[in-house]
Predict the 3D structure of the following.
Amino acid sequence: MTVHDLLLVYTAYVIAVASPGPSNMAIMNAAMRHGRRSGLALAAGVVTMSVIWGTIAATGVSALFTSYAHAVTILKVAGALYLLWLAWKAARSAVTPDEELDQTATAAPNAWLFYRRGVLMHIGNPKAVLGWIAIMFLEVSSDATLTTVAAALIGCILLGLLIFSGYALLFSTAPMVKAYAKARRWFEGVLALFFAGVGIRLLISR
Protein backbone atom coordinates (compact mmCIF):
# COMPACT_ATOMS: atom_id res chain seq x y z
CA MET A 1 0.00 0.00 0.00
CA THR A 2 1.36 3.40 -1.03
CA VAL A 3 0.86 6.80 0.55
CA HIS A 4 -1.64 7.48 -2.23
CA ASP A 5 -3.64 4.40 -1.19
CA LEU A 6 -3.69 5.59 2.42
CA LEU A 7 -4.90 9.02 1.34
CA LEU A 8 -7.74 7.36 -0.55
CA VAL A 9 -8.70 5.43 2.58
CA TYR A 10 -8.59 8.56 4.73
CA THR A 11 -10.56 10.60 2.20
CA ALA A 12 -13.28 7.94 1.95
CA TYR A 13 -13.51 7.77 5.73
CA VAL A 14 -13.71 11.54 6.21
CA ILE A 15 -16.49 11.82 3.62
CA ALA A 16 -18.43 9.01 5.30
CA VAL A 17 -17.98 10.32 8.86
CA ALA A 18 -18.29 14.06 8.30
CA SER A 19 -21.46 13.79 6.21
CA PRO A 20 -24.73 14.44 8.08
CA GLY A 21 -25.83 11.40 10.03
CA PRO A 22 -27.58 10.43 13.27
CA SER A 23 -24.39 10.50 15.34
CA ASN A 24 -23.34 13.95 14.14
CA MET A 25 -26.82 15.37 14.67
CA ALA A 26 -26.99 13.91 18.17
CA ILE A 27 -23.58 15.37 19.06
CA MET A 28 -24.64 18.79 17.80
CA ASN A 29 -27.84 18.65 19.83
CA ALA A 30 -26.11 17.48 23.01
CA ALA A 31 -23.44 20.18 22.71
CA MET A 32 -25.90 23.02 22.12
CA ARG A 33 -28.49 21.89 24.65
CA HIS A 34 -26.36 20.48 27.48
CA GLY A 35 -22.91 21.94 26.89
CA ARG A 36 -19.45 20.99 25.70
CA ARG A 37 -18.88 18.22 28.25
CA SER A 38 -22.02 16.38 27.21
CA GLY A 39 -21.24 16.74 23.52
CA LEU A 40 -17.71 15.43 24.00
CA ALA A 41 -18.99 12.51 26.11
CA LEU A 42 -21.42 11.50 23.38
CA ALA A 43 -18.66 11.86 20.79
CA ALA A 44 -16.44 9.62 22.94
CA GLY A 45 -19.13 6.92 22.92
CA VAL A 46 -19.40 7.12 19.14
CA VAL A 47 -15.61 6.93 18.75
CA THR A 48 -15.44 3.93 21.10
CA MET A 49 -17.80 1.90 18.94
CA SER A 50 -16.08 3.17 15.82
CA VAL A 51 -12.80 1.75 17.15
CA ILE A 52 -14.51 -1.59 17.81
CA TRP A 53 -16.14 -1.77 14.37
CA GLY A 54 -12.90 -0.73 12.70
CA THR A 55 -10.91 -3.37 14.56
CA ILE A 56 -13.48 -6.03 13.67
CA ALA A 57 -13.25 -5.06 10.00
CA ALA A 58 -9.45 -4.91 10.03
CA THR A 59 -9.08 -8.35 11.63
CA GLY A 60 -11.42 -9.98 9.13
CA VAL A 61 -14.12 -10.89 11.64
CA SER A 62 -16.49 -8.66 9.68
CA ALA A 63 -16.69 -11.45 7.09
CA LEU A 64 -19.30 -12.91 9.43
CA PHE A 65 -21.58 -10.01 8.55
CA THR A 66 -21.25 -10.71 4.85
CA SER A 67 -21.80 -14.44 5.38
CA TYR A 68 -24.76 -14.04 7.71
CA ALA A 69 -27.05 -11.33 6.40
CA HIS A 70 -29.40 -11.66 9.36
CA ALA A 71 -26.67 -10.24 11.64
CA VAL A 72 -26.76 -6.95 9.75
CA THR A 73 -30.57 -7.09 9.70
CA ILE A 74 -30.69 -7.40 13.48
CA LEU A 75 -28.35 -4.42 13.86
CA LYS A 76 -30.40 -2.46 11.36
CA VAL A 77 -33.70 -3.07 13.16
CA ALA A 78 -32.19 -2.31 16.58
CA GLY A 79 -30.66 0.89 15.27
CA ALA A 80 -33.90 1.92 13.60
CA LEU A 81 -35.93 1.42 16.78
CA TYR A 82 -33.39 3.41 18.79
CA LEU A 83 -33.52 6.26 16.27
CA LEU A 84 -37.32 6.25 16.39
CA TRP A 85 -37.15 6.50 20.16
CA LEU A 86 -34.80 9.49 19.84
CA ALA A 87 -37.20 11.00 17.31
CA TRP A 88 -40.07 10.68 19.79
CA LYS A 89 -38.01 12.38 22.50
CA ALA A 90 -37.04 15.22 20.18
CA ALA A 91 -40.63 15.64 18.99
CA ARG A 92 -41.90 15.78 22.57
CA SER A 93 -39.32 18.46 23.33
CA ALA A 94 -40.29 20.40 20.19
CA VAL A 95 -43.96 20.67 21.19
CA THR A 96 -43.14 21.64 24.78
CA PRO A 97 -43.21 25.44 25.35
CA ASP A 98 -40.05 27.00 26.71
CA GLU A 99 -41.81 28.02 29.92
CA GLU A 100 -43.02 24.50 30.63
CA LEU A 101 -39.65 23.05 29.76
CA ASP A 102 -37.94 25.42 32.19
CA GLN A 103 -40.33 24.42 34.97
CA THR A 104 -39.77 20.70 34.45
CA ALA A 105 -36.06 20.91 33.70
CA THR A 106 -33.72 18.98 35.93
CA ALA A 107 -29.97 18.75 36.05
CA ALA A 108 -28.40 17.74 32.76
CA PRO A 109 -27.64 14.02 32.50
CA ASN A 110 -24.11 13.16 33.53
CA ALA A 111 -21.34 12.45 31.04
CA TRP A 112 -21.72 8.67 31.45
CA LEU A 113 -25.30 8.79 30.15
CA PHE A 114 -24.20 10.70 27.06
CA TYR A 115 -21.28 8.33 26.55
CA ARG A 116 -23.66 5.37 26.75
CA ARG A 117 -26.01 7.06 24.28
CA GLY A 118 -23.16 7.45 21.80
CA VAL A 119 -22.20 3.78 22.16
CA LEU A 120 -25.78 2.57 21.70
CA MET A 121 -26.29 4.81 18.69
CA HIS A 122 -23.20 3.46 16.93
CA ILE A 123 -23.85 -0.18 17.86
CA GLY A 124 -26.99 -0.19 15.74
CA ASN A 125 -25.61 1.99 12.97
CA PRO A 126 -25.25 -0.19 9.85
CA LYS A 127 -23.59 2.75 8.09
CA ALA A 128 -20.68 2.44 10.53
CA VAL A 129 -20.44 -1.34 10.16
CA LEU A 130 -20.69 -1.47 6.38
CA GLY A 131 -18.57 1.65 6.00
CA TRP A 132 -15.66 0.07 7.85
CA ILE A 133 -16.07 -3.15 5.89
CA ALA A 134 -15.99 -1.21 2.62
CA ILE A 135 -12.91 0.76 3.63
CA MET A 136 -10.96 -2.21 4.92
CA PHE A 137 -11.90 -4.65 2.17
CA LEU A 138 -12.27 -2.43 -0.87
CA GLU A 139 -9.74 0.31 -0.25
CA VAL A 140 -7.07 -1.77 1.48
CA SER A 141 -5.50 -4.14 -1.02
CA SER A 142 -5.51 -7.86 -0.36
CA ASP A 143 -1.71 -7.98 -0.17
CA ALA A 144 -1.47 -5.15 2.37
CA THR A 145 0.85 -5.81 5.28
CA LEU A 146 -0.14 -5.65 8.94
CA THR A 147 1.66 -2.31 9.20
CA THR A 148 -0.31 -0.69 6.39
CA VAL A 149 -3.62 -2.05 7.67
CA ALA A 150 -2.77 -0.68 11.11
CA ALA A 151 -1.86 2.68 9.54
CA ALA A 152 -5.23 2.79 7.77
CA LEU A 153 -7.13 1.82 10.92
CA ILE A 154 -5.30 4.14 13.32
CA GLY A 155 -5.41 7.05 10.88
CA CYS A 156 -9.17 6.66 10.39
CA ILE A 157 -9.75 6.42 14.13
CA LEU A 158 -7.80 9.63 14.74
CA LEU A 159 -9.71 11.38 11.98
CA GLY A 160 -12.99 10.21 13.50
CA LEU A 161 -11.92 11.50 16.90
CA LEU A 162 -11.09 14.91 15.40
CA ILE A 163 -14.34 15.11 13.44
CA PHE A 164 -16.75 14.01 16.18
CA SER A 165 -14.97 16.07 18.85
CA GLY A 166 -14.85 19.00 16.46
CA TYR A 167 -18.64 18.92 16.11
CA ALA A 168 -18.97 18.91 19.91
CA LEU A 169 -16.56 21.82 20.33
CA LEU A 170 -18.03 23.88 17.49
CA PHE A 171 -21.66 23.52 18.52
CA SER A 172 -20.96 24.19 22.19
CA THR A 173 -19.65 27.69 21.46
CA ALA A 174 -21.60 30.68 22.75
CA PRO A 175 -23.04 31.72 19.33
CA MET A 176 -24.32 28.19 18.67
CA VAL A 177 -25.82 27.85 22.15
CA LYS A 178 -27.49 31.25 21.77
CA ALA A 179 -28.88 30.30 18.36
CA TYR A 180 -30.20 27.03 19.79
CA ALA A 181 -31.91 28.86 22.65
CA LYS A 182 -33.73 31.11 20.17
CA ALA A 183 -34.79 28.32 17.83
CA ARG A 184 -34.92 25.35 20.20
CA ARG A 185 -38.35 24.09 19.21
CA TRP A 186 -37.59 24.43 15.49
CA PHE A 187 -34.29 22.60 15.84
CA GLU A 188 -35.82 19.82 17.92
CA GLY A 189 -38.57 19.43 15.32
CA VAL A 190 -36.05 19.10 12.51
CA LEU A 191 -34.07 16.63 14.60
CA ALA A 192 -37.20 14.56 15.24
CA LEU A 193 -37.99 14.43 11.51
CA PHE A 194 -34.41 13.52 10.69
CA PHE A 195 -34.21 10.69 13.22
CA ALA A 196 -37.64 9.39 12.23
CA GLY A 197 -36.77 9.50 8.53
CA VAL A 198 -33.53 7.59 8.99
CA GLY A 199 -35.17 5.11 11.33
CA ILE A 200 -38.07 4.38 8.96
CA ARG A 201 -35.70 4.09 6.01
CA LEU A 202 -33.67 1.51 7.90
CA LEU A 203 -36.78 -0.50 8.72
CA ILE A 204 -38.09 -0.64 5.16
CA SER A 205 -34.72 -1.02 3.39
CA ARG A 206 -33.64 -4.46 2.25
Summary: The chain is about 85% helix and 0% strand. Residues 69-94 form the longest helix (26 residues).
